[in-house]
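dumping this here so i dont lose it
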């Protein structure tokens, strides 16, 4: 059910030096980068105008995501911003410095929980500092509830910010707990339990319905007078002030649509926002997936459900883009051969698709990131998520070339490979092919991996429950890993060296076993689905290959490295795991999914973890990256017609966040019941 993903980007070397400044700033475990919109001037004025309107629609949903992530996020953000804009004290003090970092983290994570690790991060400044700073503000600037004093406001939000146990995890999937009550997100009201949610939505499902809508996707489920009720996200419903703005800009965008199919998709999306009707949402998804001719494209809406422990509620996200024609030629080759790849995979025949439909793949240039794609963004997206729509109409799969380019350029020469790669031969291969094979693996993951395989008749698509998204990501990654060394890849011109795949194999093992640990807070386990998936694959291969020493962890001078002794055998193991993971998915084998994920995907070796974090610290590399957007300015003639859209890259991180909070912040501080 989860198809968008964020493969992480480890460092790579590039040869080209650019004038463009890709690195913006760094704080905590986060690095802020800038991306370039290459070929902007190749677009027509109509296309630029369309993008401009879609960009505006993409920026207006930011508050929705803050509120979805936790019901106090808007109150906290607005308080912090008021202090930031009006602070009269010593900005060199340790408290103020820690305050600025905390605010930057809240912006980056769209709330008080780490955007990737899901845990609440704590302020590095004192309660006294914060209390004094808020009390010295003009009281009208403090986002209080109606008739609330500044004191009682502080009494309410200080524990939310400072108490570690309160709202500790945005999404909590620990086994054996109530994952709804245990999660700090705002998709469910107070007192709603996991059991109640499951009963509520199961009652809506009709087992004979072959085209089910995604129940629960666009609502908050609350308890009112002891009864469960949905508060629907729509015009006139929950989040209406933001949705009205989004609708306005989508309607404007419709005027510049490139063709009737695109216009139809935009209109259906508007209908969905106005009615909240999930049937309309499915109609929109179908119209959107059929629009393959347009140069300009977009994601805008309640899309991915990683933020909900039960995978029902979707966070708001947006991304506007246009086709990168040169790079798209490559993904086209992959999708043209989709059936060949499906037929030749090591998966059992009954779990394969007889006809792999509509794997439309393209490479895109992002023009704006919004909602759950901002500032941290996926580098590949595959939508829509509805299983039956994917089966009947196919899906659109994209990789975002100007984002991967920015990662590459920003990481040039940061010492990462020297620190973590075991041997000169591997290092050389990674320098030579790492960037190429990493992009290829993303393409294979998105265009083939997620699109491959089928459920056996009667298997519920939610059967794997909380393990569903990890298994789905593992399936897509394994499919890509299995094929990267295949002669077919050389034959169709996707790589030109039979050794190149080793760069991806080495990187994958190094990342899954060692370097991704840099992203985990001390004492925590692995939570996020893509990270669990990488850990699962790498640890499984390590264990199964032990007898033949396929791969091993070795220690040199107190540092741990991966050594791969037998790449060919490693591919065989990848194929075995792919077959098993597809079986689990196809049969809906919950017990096997649980066993695999819990045994290989979750646990962290404490000693290795500590070592990796120290090595990262020494290099000064931020484990997580995000982006500031370019600034777009509409140039108009005297009659108010757009005559050009100008793009610039000067805006800083805090500057951009403060501007968005000023200009694109229509929601009240407190939403819903
Ligand atoms: Zn994925």
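and the seq i came up w/
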């Amino acid at each position: 059910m989860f198809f968008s993903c964020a493969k992480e980007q480890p460092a790579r070397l590039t040869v080209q030096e650019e004038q463009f400044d890709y690195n913006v700033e760094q704080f905590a475990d986060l690095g802020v980068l800038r991306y370039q919109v290459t070929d902007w001037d190749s677009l027509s004025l109509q296309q630029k105008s369309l993008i401009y309107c879609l960009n505006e629609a993409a920026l207006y949903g930011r508050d929705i995501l803050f509120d979805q992530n936790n019901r106090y996020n808007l109150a906290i953000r607005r308080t912090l911003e008021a202090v930031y804009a009006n602070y009269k004290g010593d900005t060199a003090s340790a408290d103020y410095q820690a305050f600025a970092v905390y605010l930057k983290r809240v912006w980056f994570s769209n709330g008080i929980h780490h955007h990737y690790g899901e845990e609440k991060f704590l302020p590095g400044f004192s309660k006294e500092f914060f209390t004094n700073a808020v009390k010295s503000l003009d009281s009208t600037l403090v986002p209080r509830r109606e008739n609330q004093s500044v004191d009682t406001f502080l009494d309410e939000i200080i524990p939310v910010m400072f108490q570690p146990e309160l709202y500790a995890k945005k999404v909590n999937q620990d086994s054996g707990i109530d994952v709804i009550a245990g999660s700090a997100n705002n998709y469910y009201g107070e007192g709603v339990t996991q059991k109640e949610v499951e009963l509520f939505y199961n009652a809506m499902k009709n087992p004979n319905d072959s085209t089910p809508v995604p129940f629960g996707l666009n609502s908050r489920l609350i308890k009112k007078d002891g009864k469960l009720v949905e508060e629907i996200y729509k015009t006139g419903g929950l989040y209406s002030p933001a949705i009205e703005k989004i609708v306005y800009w989508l309607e404007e965008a419709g005027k510049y649509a490139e063709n009737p199919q695109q216009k139809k998709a935009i209109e259906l999306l508007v209908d969905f926002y106005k009615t909240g009707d999930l049937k309309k949402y499915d109609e929109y998804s179908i119209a959107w997936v059929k629009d393959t001719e347009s140069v300009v494209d977009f994601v805008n809406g309640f899309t991915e459900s990683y933020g909900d422990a039960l995978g029902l509620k979707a966070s708001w996200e947006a991304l506007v883009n246009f086709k990168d024609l040169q790079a798209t030629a490559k993904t086209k080759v992959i999708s043209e051969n989709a059936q060949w790849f499906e037929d030749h995979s090591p998966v059992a025949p009954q779990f394969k698709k007889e006809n792999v439909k509509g794997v439309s793949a393209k490479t895109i240039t992002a023009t704006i990131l919004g909602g759950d794609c901002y500032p941290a963004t996926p580098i590949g997206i595959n939508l829509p998520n509805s299983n039956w729509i994917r089966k009947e109409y196919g899906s659109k799969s994209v990789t975002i070339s100007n984002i991967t380019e920015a990662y590459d350029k920003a990481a040039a020469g940061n010492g990462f490979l020297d620190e973590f790669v075991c041997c000169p031969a591997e290092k050389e291969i990674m320098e030579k092919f790492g960037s190429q094979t990493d992009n290829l693996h993303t393409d294979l993951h998105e265009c083939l991996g997620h699109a491959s395989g089928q459920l056996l008749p009667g298997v519920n698509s939610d059967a794997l429950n909380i393990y569903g998204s990890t298994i789905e990501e593992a399936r897509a990654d394994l499919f890509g890993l299995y094929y990267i060394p295949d002669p077919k890849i050389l034959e169709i011109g996707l790589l030109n060296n039979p050794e190149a795949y080793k760069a991806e194999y080495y990187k994958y093992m190094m990342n899954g076993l060692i370097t991704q640990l840099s992203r985990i807070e001390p004492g925590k386990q692995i939570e996020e689905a893509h990270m669990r998936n990488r850990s699962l694959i790498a640890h499984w291969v390590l264990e199964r290959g032990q007898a033949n020493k396929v791969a091993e962890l070795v220690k040199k001078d107190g540092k741990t490295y991966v050594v791969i002794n037998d790449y060919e055998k490693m591919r065989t193991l990848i194929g075995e795991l792919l077959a098993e993971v597809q079986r689990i998915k196809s049969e809906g084998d919950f017990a096997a999914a649980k066993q695999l994920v819990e045994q290989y995907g979750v646990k962290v070796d404490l000693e290795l973890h500590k070592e990796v974090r120290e090595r990262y610290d020494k290099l000064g590399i931020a484990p997580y990256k995000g982006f500031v957007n370019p600034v777009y300015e509409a140039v108009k003639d005297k009659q108010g017609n757009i005559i050009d859209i100008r793009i610039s890259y000067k805006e800083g991180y805090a500057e951009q966040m403060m501007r968005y909070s000023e200009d694109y912040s229509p929601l009240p501080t407190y939403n819903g019941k």
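The two ends are 29 Å apart (CA to CA).
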